[in-house]
Amino acid sequence: MLKLLHTGSVKNIYTSEQESLYLFEFSDRYSVFDWGAMPDELPLKGEALAVMANFFFQQFAQTKFWRGLAFSHQASPTLELEKKLVERFAEKGLPHHSVGLAPELSEEGLALINQTERSRLLAVRPVHVPRGESVRFYQNKPTDCLVPLEVIFRFGLTPGSSFWSRSTDQKYLAELGLSKMIKEGESFPFVIVEFSTKLESADRPLTYLEAQELAGLSETEFLQLIAQTRVQAIALKSLFDKAGVNLIDGKFEFAFEKNLIAGERQFELVDSIGPDELRIDYKGIQLSKESLRQIYRRDPWYEALLAAKKKAPTMPGKSWKSLCELEPPQLLPAQKKCISEMYLILCDELLRSHGYPAVFTDETTKTLAEWEMGAKKFL
Description:
Elements (H helix, E strand, L loop, with lengths): L2 E5 L3 E5 L6 E5 L18 H17 L1 H5 L11 H14 L5 E5 L18 E4 L9 H5 L10 E8 L13 H7 L10 E11 L7 E2 L1 H7 L4 H24 L3 E16 L2 E7 L7 E5 L2 E2 L2 H9 L2 H12 L8 H4 L9 H21 L14 H8 L4
Antiparallel strand pairs: 1-2, 2-3, 3-5, 4-5, 6-7, 6-9, 7-8, 9-10, 9-11, 11-12
Helix pairs in contact: 1-11, 3-7, 11-12
């Protein structure tokens, strides 16, 4: 059997005996507001996330996808780099660590299955993740390892976006390439890219200079990372656009590739892509964890959680979670069914819109439009 490496709030990671592959097991657990695993599960959510992640990686790897990508973000500060990246991906595909869906959790199950089948397991190539002295480690310009940054992209803003707290900082806006702040409901003139820490106990927002120094990036590498994030975001948005849904923002994770180009390190896409890492809108309803957040914000537990987070800095040695006076409640059965269906229907809409057969028709035959009509009473 495979060895369990890590149990996260929603995802488990296994390795084969030879450690030649890792397996991401997408569970039916969910987490909101950094609480960790919540008290119940969403049936088949894990399978939907695994299938969607595999779909996105497969699309990005295809050269024909990049040759057909409508690419026109003329205002972008890194436009020329973006064009060169699209040309490279149109020739070789976008590099990533995914190998494909696996049928079962065993050494024998590492044979891959087709796009048209279902699994909660995604096989990936291992990426080295340094621990401890990570800052010193990255100053030595390593390759074949995780970039210690979460890279956030934004096409626009939702009312609850953390960006609003930084929107009056003119120096920060200038760093992002913005001459003025947009209004709610407007789109940015180009894809905005932000950074936060990845290997610290809690995510911490970073300025561009802090991000570059933390990851040990040259100026060329840093601009390349920003440009590649914009390109991937535009490509991902095109996939959602075809399914009739709107991508608002999200995050990517990267690793340094082994091979250099002109002496500079290149980047491969790692971890996973799906609604848990994104904000996706359909007729004003969020097709992501934001829907769960909206439900829980109406519960007294949420106010207790905010109070605990506010109190924790004044009580050294105490975690904010231990100070929370209430436990999160389970979802109501109708809420649970609604959110579970959201993942399954979004997955099937994506597959169908790009010429693949749907995989969850035995569980639900609703379209997104039909689901949205019923979801309004819960979200």
